[in-house]
Amino acid sequence: MSIGFDQTWPRRQLLITQRLRQRRSDLGLTQQQVVTRLARHGLRTTNRSLSSLEHGAGLEVAKLPALAQALDCTVTYLVGLTDDPHRWEPDQPPAPQPRRAADPPAPADDAAGAHSLILGADVPDRGSHLRLDGQPSTP
Fold this sequence. Notes:
It contains five helices and no strands. The chain has about 140 residues and is mainly α. Helix 2 (about 30-40) crosses helix 4 (about 65-70). The protein is elongated, with a radius of gyration of 17 Å. The N and C termini lie far apart (about 40 Å).
C-alpha cells in the first residue's frame, strides 16, 4: 500500500516502520545482519537501536538512505510512495498543495514539483547540472 504525498508524519512513520520490518523479513535477514550492513554504509547502530527503529522510536529522515541501502530497496519504497522496493519514482504524481498567502509563487516551469527528485546516497542526479550561478549548464 503506497500512500500519497499529503499524509501526516505519524502515519508515514508507521508505514516506514512496517516497511523496515517487512523488508528485513522478506530478505531473510536478522537484525544483527542488518546492523552489519548499516555499519558498511556508515550508520553505526545496535540490535536494540534497530529494534527501536522498527517500532518507530528514533526514526530520523537522515537515516533512510543507509537503511534503504542495507535493505536493498529505495527510500521511495520505505516512505511509502511506491510498492516496488526497487522503484525510485512514486506510484502517483504528487498532488498539488494548496498555497498559503505567505508562500512564494511557484516557478512557472515547476508545476506541482515536476523537477522534484528523490535520490539515495548512491544515485547521482544525472538529469540536471547547475552552474554556481544557478543556471543550467550545457553538456
